[in-house]
Amino acid sequence: EVQLVESGGGLVQAGGSLRLSCAASGFTLDSYAIGWFRQAPGKEREVVSCINSPDGSTYYADSVKGRFTISSDNAKNTVVLQMNSLKPEDTAVYYCAATRAYSDYYIPTLGREYDYWGQGTQVTVSS
């Protein structure tokens, strides 16, 4: 059974950092793409960052470039999203999602391209 479990969310002041983890089970990351998405109250879900595990290529939304870093630890079957310089507008429920990699260097960034989703973890950034 494929499972994704997010952890690491919490409450932090603006300018602070959080480290989100997405632990995968039921499959091995090295042939999958993993995406982090977020949804704030009253807003649509948006992509944050993605990694194509077979080749390590990454994608970042403009709003998080230079502040967030995505990485994959295939030995631990975990993807980490390091979030620095957090802003109140980063407040949202963060979800990780997985799909079999489409091809080398193609990074899926649309929610509908992902087959498996975690339950989400709340990130709250106070001003």
Structure description:
With 127 residues, the protein is mostly beta strands. It has no helices and 11 strands. Strands 2, 4, 5, 6, 9, 10 and 11 form a 7-stranded mixed sheet that branches. The termini are far apart. The model has no long low-confidence stretch (mean pLDDT 95).
What are the salient characteristics of this protein?
single chain, globular, 7-stranded mixed sheet, 127 residues, 51% strand, 4-stranded antiparallel sheet, mainly beta
What would a concise description of this structure say?
With 127 residues, the protein is an all-beta fold. The protein has strands at residues 3-7, 10-13, 18-25, 32-39, 46-52, 57-60, 68-73, 78-83, 92-100, 116-117, 121-126.
Oligomer: single chain
Give the SSE order as H and E letters.
EEEEEEEEEEE
Structural class: mainly beta
Put simply, the count of helices is 0
Mean pLDDT: 95
Helix content: under 10%
